[in-house]
UniProtKB/TrEMBL annotation:
Entry keyword Transcription: no
Signal peptide: none
The protein's name in its UniProt record: TetR/AcrR family transcriptional regulator
Keywords, comma-separated and alphabetical: DNA-binding
Organism domain of life: Bacteria
Domain HTH tetR-type, chain residue ranges per copy: 18-78
Gene source species: Jiangella ureilytica
Amino acid sequence: MSTRTQRGTGAAPKRVRSVTRENVLVAAEEVFVAKGYRGASINEIAAEAGYTIGALYSNFASKAQLFLAVTERRMLARGRRLEAALRGVHDRLPVTTVAEIVWAELQPEKAWTIAGYEFVAEAMRDDSLGPRLVELNDEARDIVRDVLVASMAGRPVPPLPLERMVTLTQCLINGIAATATYDLDLDLTESLADGLALMLDQSRSAPDVSLEAFRAGQEAAADQDMHDPHAR
């Protein structure tokens, strides 16, 4: 048998495994969205994908590892769309426009957000998942960092270091998406735009106030209210 034939023979199984993995990821996402993380079973996912449980386990060691793979696949796809939407931005974009672009590309879904928090609740008790969660968080930070760098075009350098803004923005996005699962009147764009404005457009003309000075001011105001009959 020639070397070329041997290589060709070896390539086919790799392509099959790649297709199998992709099909499982697509099926798993559908089941996780429909049933949640806790409600989804490996049997259901295998059946939805049209494979045996053995074929599924040959690609993913556990339901948790499968969920992490689906999460990464979704996140990277949305990250690529965000990158494309913000590519070539050189002028200052209003924070409302940035927020609209973020939500248009992230496309938060209530069912997936809930499934994600179900997973996190269980993953917090499993130390073996910690390193993978850190990797995913780093990938999410890369996406947020790209958004912030594009948003800073045409603006003065913000007072906060970039990495601190990445952390705040990531928490803001996650918090808004979580709140939106039960607060149906929440304006996602407005909420994110407000947070971005505080980081990117805040004025440095106001003097910094120490915690001690702030507390002293609060105590003075409270004392004044106590002695002011009209304040009651």
